[in-house]
Design brief:
The chain has one domain. Helices cover 27% and strands 19% of the residues.
């Protein structure tokens, strides 16, 4: 089985980086997160707060 990742030229990983997500993606304009993972649902407030001081709109949708 193949493992494939398609990503932008920048990869960021580290403790607490989810808190900086809004800063890192602000230049994209909008972000849409389609998730069926309970882990994303647990992090929803952190993700939303990371966009608080940006121009980026965030759309979260949970598929259960």
């Amino acid at each position: 089985m193949s493992n494939i990742i398609i990503s932008p030229s920048k990869y960021i990983q580290g403790k607490g980086e989810l808190n900086n997500l809004g800063i890192h993606v602000n230049k994209l304009g909008k972000i849409f997160n389609l998730s069926k993972s309970f882990r994303i649902k647990e992090s929803e407030n952190t993700v939303k707060n990371s966009f608080a001081n940006t121009d980026t709109e965030i759309f979260l949708k949970h598929l259960w």
